[in-house]
Amino acid sequence: MNVVSRLQGADVLRADQFDRGGLDLILDKARGFARSLERGERLDTMGGQILATLFFEPSTRTRLSFEAAMLRLGGQVVSVADPKSSSAVKGETLPDTIRTVDGYADVIVLRHPLVGSAEEAAQATDKPVINAGDGAGQHPTQALLDLYTILQERGEVDGLTVALAGDLKHGRTVHSLAQVLSRYGVKLLLAAPDALRMPPDIANDLRAAGVSLEETENLQEALSSCDVLYMTRVQRERFADPAEYEQLKGAFVLTREMVEGAGREVTVMHPLPRVDEISPEVDALPGAAYFRQAANGVPVRMALLTLITG
Amino acid sequence: MNVVSRLQGADVLRADQFDRGGLDLILDKARGFARSLERGERLDTMGGQILATLFFEPSTRTRLSFEAAMLRLGGQVVSVADPKSSSAVKGETLPDTIRTVDGYADVIVLRHPLVGSAEEAAQATDKPVINAGDGAGQHPTQALLDLYTILQERGEVDGLTVALAGDLKHGRTVHSLAQVLSRYGVKLLLAAPDALRMPPDIANDLRAAGVSLEETENLQEALSSCDVLYMTRVQRERFADPAEYEQLKGAFVLTREMVEGAGREVTVMHPLPRVDEISPEVDALPGAAYFRQAANGVPVRMALLTLITG
Amino acid sequence: MNVVSRLQGADVLRADQFDRGGLDLILDKARGFARSLERGERLDTMGGQILATLFFEPSTRTRLSFEAAMLRLGGQVVSVADPKSSSAVKGETLPDTIRTVDGYADVIVLRHPLVGSAEEAAQATDKPVINAGDGAGQHPTQALLDLYTILQERGEVDGLTVALAGDLKHGRTVHSLAQVLSRYGVKLLLAAPDALRMPPDIANDLRAAGVSLEETENLQEALSSCDVLYMTRVQRERFADPAEYEQLKGAFVLTREMVEGAGREVTVMHPLPRVDEISPEVDALPGAAYFRQAANGVPVRMALLTLITG
Asked: Do B56 and B150 fall within a single domain?
């Protein structure tokens, strides 16, 4: 079965479900849609179809960008934006909810606080299910738009050095992105406080997939040898010892001086929302790509929606 | 005035407002839309029109299926899915809210916790108002999709034996369905614990309408002589004496053994959401129609929307 | 630069940003859209474009009428109707939220509890931002639909006597309307309890703009010499001394007798929602314009949306 037909009707549940061929196809499609958005072209690719966005956890970014993607494709949307306005409050199980929504929509996007919920949802319906984040689990479309952003910002992915920084222990975003990047010839720099290092099993999987890995606890050091810096937040509540947090905080806050002191042109990314881990004065630097990254969610999700609905 | 023109511009407030001719017309229209959905036809019947869904109580199923129905017809939707995001929190009366929404939409769907609220809303506007549940009152479109499901699953309605089971005292769904079924030559089996029997006035009305009624407290007995079993939930909080509930619970939980022990092909229906009153292993049986029933909400609501907007 | 091109790409932040030429253009456009709505014409003026409605405070009226306006123009909508379902709960700043939504939509409508938030939002994006109410600040599109309503109800604006009544101290609605009316040759009657008089700086600005101002504490007196009565609510919590409120309340509640005792045909307006400051029996009088006023929100917002997106 070729790459295109493998994606038809597929669920999008995990970042590691895509091989290089699948990823390249999605990137290529996304670039096509980005061009058509720029030209203000009006599409009808998904005309007559309905996307259901079921968000059992708050999200502006992911929900709105999926909805914008569907509307830009000429499709329509029904939405549960607030778990309290859904039948889940009446004690309905997730599979029952999904089996019901199956009758109303052609594609289902699900965000849910429980790990594995997207997989459970996918088993309940023949319609394609897209995982928009299942707790500490996966967030595959974020990894795809991150990959697409690296490509757009740097012109290529192979051969780059990408630094993942901040909380590499709990961040589903960096885990998913690392899996996706392992399909390309990249070098990964893992910059994290000792308490928040990438879990050994994930690091081992990446090494087994041929990724060159280096670890550091020093953000500035990572900056001075990477092409792309992917920041995530170090949260106070992750530390058993508050004193440890107090000592660290600041070391993983990116400032303009740090970026300018890198001595090279670094692309700065962040899954957003940020709180204070990137100073606002970084925003004006040419390498600050995080808002372009957010906007890339639309063409990437347009690509996915069209590929899986065939 | 003929059947078609009586529906034009009409409000849909109560299940008993429809005579046999009106019901047959809706069923027929719904079947037509179901076929066009199956064929993936793209409709523009409600193109340029706006449906407002005002939900002052949570509901995934009813709201999303009305919205999907409108979108499948080429129309558009504005929605208040959460009472806390509406002006009702500022003390506005329901008629004032409706008179305002009258200026934004061509049809209004209302779910509201108070009995009679849909009627009050309908008096405040010339636009058609559809009651999507008014507390313990009516939920007429549920009754219509239930009727449509019986027709689809059994090929005809006249001559069937339909068992209504569970809480027949409080369930607006079974009251509305019984009213609709009274337009057809059906026999009703009422299977309920003594404390939750169908209220005498409703039972008397049904008898006066020529319905043959039989009552039992035994779910298995009902199963062994019906064509359709319509399950509803027996809620603990309905019993003054918890011991009485403990004794009963289980007797009104449908299991696979019970269905297979019926000795006949029974269609199992449920308005959903279910909690535990139908065991999940029933889902795989050919007669388990409840998810098809939920999906039938779309063509039935498409039929209603087009008929009342003329 | 001419009037039309000044509006292209503009943000709509304050009522006083519009000069007479801009206001007349908006009124004229709105009248055209009202006619096309009446004729049931189907428009595609904003086809392929997306409006984002971001409501960080509850509102049925403003949100739904913006969404209806966009949909009537053939455009589409993405929406955050409930602040709790947005990323703001994760500590994201408003400019970051706006920079993100910038990637999903062509126009942004914002309601936010903080004064100045719309201006802050407008600085974060090149896309047009429309202020749909920023706390005690501005609500310019309300002022525009109020102005349009006066024109529709009275045939002209110049030369009218408009009474603003109720809480003239805190009401952003009456402040914005007074600014807009100052572009026309109107006389303003300010009818308010002494504690809730129009702030002196606003009154002085109006006089400086050539508006003839008169003040009274007597609603009936205002009624007997105005063409238009614009009611707002006097809220108990605005009074330091509850006894003062008790004495006043009733004096600023409009009854049918008061309107009929005016001895002239008065147009009664209200921004809605009302609580009890206009008795329901006023609704049936020909001059009761407040629900028509609410409905006027659609053509006026259609006019604005098309003018600022060019």
From this structure: no
For chain A, what is the radius of gyration of the CA atoms?
19
The per-residue pLDDT for range A96-112, each reduced to its tens digit, is: 999 999 999 999 999 99
Q: In sequence order, what DSSP letters do the residues of C241-283 get, joined into one string?
A: SHHHHHHHTTTT-B-HHHHHTTSS--EEE--S--SSSB-GGGT
Contact at CB, A50 and B42, closer than 8 angstroms? no
- Tell me, what CATH number does B115's domain have? 3.40.50.1370
A130 forms beta bridges with A12, A109
Nearest to A260 by CA among A215, A216, A220, A217: A220
Q: In chain A, whose CA is at the least distance from the CA of B284?
A: A124
For A265-284, write each residue's pLDDT tens digit: 999 999 999 988 999 999 99
Residue A154 and residue A76 share a domain: no
CA nearest to C54 within chain B: B85
Q: Where are the alpha helices (DSSP H) in C102-229?
A: 117-123, 140-154, 172-181, 200-208, 219-223
* B216 in catalytic set: no
**Which pLDDT score is estimated for A80?**
93
Check if the beta carbon of residue B53 is closer than 8 Å to that of residue B171: no
Q: B13: alpha, beta or left, given left = phi > 0 and alpha = psi -120 to 50?
A: alpha
Cis ω before A242 (30° cut-off from 0)? no
Q: Sort residue B210 into left (φ over 0), alpha (ψ -120 to 50) or beta.
A: left
Q: Please check whether residues A172 and A109 belong to one and the same domain.
A: no
Residue A169: closest CA among A227, A268, A252? A252
Task: Compute chain C's Rg from CA coordinates.
Answer: 19
A129 lies in the same domain as A226: no
How many domains in chain B?
A: 2
Q: How far apart are CA C255 and CA A29, in angstroms?
A: 64
User: Which domain does C21 fall in, by range?
Assistant: 3-138+295-308
> pLDDT digit string (tens) for C238-287?
778 888 888 877 789 999 999 999 999 999 999 999 988 999 999 999 99
Q: How far apart are CA C291 and CA C308, in angstroms?
A: 26
CA torsion C56-C62-C65-C70 (nearest 10°) is -50
Portion 13-72 of B in contact with C at CB < 8 A: 47-48, 50, 52
Output phi, psi for A109, to 5 deg. Answer: -105, 130
ipTM over 0.85: yes
A62 included as an active-site residue = yes
Please tell me whether residues B128 and B43 are part of one structural domain. Answer: yes
- Interval C108-146: pLDDT, tens: 999 999 999 999 999 999 999 999 999 888 999 999 999
Question: What pTM was estimated for this model as a whole?
Answer: 0.96
Q: Nearest 5 degrees, angle CA A166-CA A167-CA A171?
A: 125
